């Protein structure tokens, strides 16, 4: 996949900063959008998010209306507003264009590099998350496109999504295929004991320590397009997985939802990386590792 260069982004840089562009570097990580560091002729920098088909590594796939389109300028702007209103820090907007947004460059210090020796940013992040999760809506979905009142309950949605992921995992991973019946039984049993709910908290949706920059001790959320009102247990299962020993449990979470969502997310983290590898995503070993680790987690769920 060919990436953008100085000639492609010079006009954008001039519109954002009124200066000439000296260098443009695509940063590691983006699979649905291109993330470029813009270096201007005076040495200052900015970050450009580019949503174009040429920047999207994901192969064509059946559309998932809630999870499958967590990318795009409009979703970013909606999430930026919702998170800011909830008290979380997000990068300052510099320029908004049709398929590009330029934001301030906060440097490359990610929270994952600080977890073992600087607790303050993590303390502040957990405060921000508490405020986000306490920002409630009577319906779930994107802040600008909440689902109708008669939409299926979140646990029903997650069950159906997990069953599809199970089918796709069975087609790719023989060890999971061998346990298909037991895994489906586990999903349905965990779903069957969940009680109804009518309030949903604001979540980031994919919050690992690699999606938090630290600037002046302040945690700043990035890759925010997946932000929505949802069961906060969905977020906590991902936090538990990604933060490991640094995860901080909170009171009041529903154990039944946590049980279902753990297995559902592990299946998703097998299916998604393997599907991404059908295309030309460059960081292939990392995706294989994620799929292999979550295969082990899936199988561990049926031997508890």
From TrEMBL:
<feature type="domain" description="Aminoglycoside phosphotransferase">
    <location>
        <begin position="75"/>
        <end position="229"/>
    </location>
</feature>
<dbReference type="InterPro" id="IPR011009">
    <property type="entry name" value="Kinase-like_dom_sf"/>
</dbReference>
<dbReference type="InterPro" id="IPR002575">
    <property type="entry name" value="Aminoglycoside_PTrfase"/>
</dbReference>
<protein>
    <submittedName>
        <fullName>Aminoglycoside phosphotransferase</fullName>
    </submittedName>
</protein>
<dbReference type="Pfam" id="PF01636">
    <property type="entry name" value="APH"/>
</dbReference>
């Amino acid at each position: 996949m060919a990436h953008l260069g100085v000639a492609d982004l010079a006009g954008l840089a001039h519109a954002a900063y009124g200066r000439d562009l000296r260098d443009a570097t695509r940063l590691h990580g983006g699979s649905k959008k291109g993330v470029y560091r813009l270096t201007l002729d005076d040495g200052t920098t900015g970050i450009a998010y580019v949503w174009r088909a040429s920047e999207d590594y994901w192969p064509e796939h059946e559309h998932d209306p809630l999870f499958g389109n967590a990318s795009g300028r409009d979703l970013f702007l909606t999430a930026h507003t919702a998170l800011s209103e909830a008290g979380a820090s997000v990068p300052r907007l510099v320029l908004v264009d049709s398929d590009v947004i330029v934001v301030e460059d906060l440097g490359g210090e990610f929270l994952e590099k600080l977890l073992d020796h600087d607790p303050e940013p993590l303390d502040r992040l957990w405060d921000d998350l508490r405020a986000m999760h306490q920002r409630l809506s009577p319906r779930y979905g994107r802040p600008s496109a909440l689902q109708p009142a008669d939409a299926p309950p979140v646990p029903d949605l997650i069950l159906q999504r997990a069953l599809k992921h199970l089918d796709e995992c069975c087609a790719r991973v023989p060890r999971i295929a061998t346990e298909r019946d037991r895994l489906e039984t586990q999903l349905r049993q965990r779903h069957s004991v969940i009680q109804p709910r009518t309030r949903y908290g604001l979540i980031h949706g994919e919050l690992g320590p690699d999606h938090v920059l630290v600037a002046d001790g302040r945690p700043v959320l990035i890759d925010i397009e997946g932000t929505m009102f949802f069961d906060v247990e969905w977020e906590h299962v991902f936090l538990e997985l990604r933060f490991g020993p640094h995860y901080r449990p909170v009171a009041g979470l529903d154990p039944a939802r946590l049980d279902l969502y753990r297995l559902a997310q592990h299946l998703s983290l097998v299916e998604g990386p393997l599907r991404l590898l059908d295309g030309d995503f460059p960081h292939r070993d990392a995706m294989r590792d994620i799929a292999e680790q979550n295969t082990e987690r899936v199988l561990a769920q049926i031997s508890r």
